[in-house]
User: Fold these one by one.
Assistant:
Number 1:
Amino acid sequence: MEAMPEQLIDPFRRRVDYVRLSLTDRCDFRCVYCMAEDMTFLPKRQVLSLEELQEIAAAFTELGVRKIRLTGGEPLIRPNVLSLVRGVGELPGLDVLAMTTNGSQLQRLAAPLRDSGVSRLNISLDSLNPRKFRHLTRYGNLDQVIAGIDAAVAAGFERIRLNAVILRGRNEDEVLDLVEFASQRGIDIAFIEEMPLGRIVEHDRRLSFCSSAELREIISQRYSLQSGTAPGVTDGPARFYQLGDSATRVGFISPHSENFCHLCNRVRVTVEGRLLLCLGNEHSADLREVLRRPGYDRDQLKMAIVNAVARKPERHYFDHGPEPQVLRFMNTTGG
Ligand code: SAM
Ligand code: SF4
């Protein structure tokens, strides 16, 4: 019997110590860059139960994973989500439990999430104009999300970061207002370049693309941006700058214009139990099949994870070709 490693090291000597775990492919929004308007979601039997999700989280922490981010779809619409959050938050060895949410449920759930062990929250916010916000999210209500952000600020998370995807001709004129909104609340904001995940017809991604360099230029016309953290383990593929003398950091996530694959420390698990080794490649392993085997034990799952990490690709190759290179939508990938 092979000895079980205590750390996950890939063939390019990168240590994998960060997992993004998707709790659902469903969402109460249909953001135009993330989903088609008419989506088919997974039937229940294909979706991991809360117990199976907990088991996966436990296996990863036993393999040296220190950070787990719960995501989706919209993680906070998963029924009984707080019981899972509490369970994952209690896993020995886990340093950071984070979540990415669209904010729609935070008025109700921000304080219980903080109490259950979530220390960092990323909240998506692409517009401060109610009509535009509704357009971009198709179903979202801006007032509800802003009240959710304020509830999160009041709940005292260690770190809150807004995530904004900027599309040319849609919300590029709101970049400064979004930065101002974050700085008024003393929270961070990251601008994410749109990624070619899933086939959409709502807009042409080649035309809507706004580069991080362009956004940085717009922001530096009003604010000083002090180059702070170089991209690294804690910030992942984001480059962060301190905004003037405020507490706010402004980040740029640039999968197109900059490539940080050599620093990649993460893998993703979809809610079907597919372990995705790279956002921009289809390399994966079926963990659900292992979990549902008769006579399952955790070492089988850990071995499946170790063997999969040994196949982690070196990098992604996103470009602006007419077809998406990865047909998965972001909601199934676990953003
Ligand atoms: N529903 C939650 C939310 O919106 O924050 C969590 C899941 S969502 C898929 C995670 C992040 O992915 C969001 O910040 C969203 O803006 C981003 N996202 C979705 N589709 C994207 C795309 N095609 N390119 C870049 N970012 C995308
Ligand atoms: Fe839902 Fe998040 Fe995708 Fe928007 S980005 S549709 S909120 S999963």
Note: The longest strand covers residues 159-165.
Number 2:
Amino acid sequence: MKLIFLGAPGSGKGTQAEYVSAKMNIPPISTGNMLREAVKNGTDAGLSAKAYMDRGDLVPDEVVIGIIKDRVAQEDCKDGFILDGFPRTVEQAQALEDMGIKIDLAVEIAVPDDRICERMGGRRVCDKCGASYHVDYKPTKVDGKCDSCDGNAVQRADDVPETVLSRLKTYHEKTAPLLDFYGKLGKLKTVEGQIEIEDTKRLTFEAIGC
Ligand code: ADP
Ligand code: ZN
């Protein structure tokens, strides 16, 4: 099964991608996590991505497409994968098609902008494995410590209010057209993001049929 998760920054798509990954035993592929890792390690891709990410802009298509191409070619992707945060532009979706990758389903996690802004301040991410948390909705067991590794659950530099607004704008301009793209292919399912993560999880599993 090859799945795509679509949704605004902070919609909870990464969290749902992690749940579905665990349930279906296919890897979650988050371009955001991979880019943050690249920045941390100071690789070429990381160096060229950093300024865009800090501003809340999209990293150029060719950088991200290159990263995805390498990643989906790895052994653990042979039975499928879950793309979280890719594609984010019509050009990226087209690149997937050009790679001959046939997507089974695109799942949109729909959350209104005002709720996104409310939630963002509480969002945390593990600085080591990338697992996602929220201080109210998905707290870590031990304050500030990741549940699944010995990393720290920290706030992302781009989760400050000004950057969140510009990321939301970018989402509506560049990524929302993908809803139409996959809708026209008959491959789109929309899940309304709920207050409780467990409720969204149930609806997401229903939409995928897993
Ligand atoms: P969120 O979904 O909360 O915006 P991500 O972790 O998915 O966060 O992405 C963080 C940043 O990484 C984005 O703001 C963007 O700069 C960059 N990025 C991630 N995925 C892509 C992509 N597919 N294309 C371009 N830039 C990307
Ligand atoms: Zn971790």
Note: Residues 9-10, 31-32, 35, 52-53, 56-59, 64, 85-86, 88, 92, 158, 167 surround adenosine-5'-diphosphate (ligand 1) (CB under 6 Å).
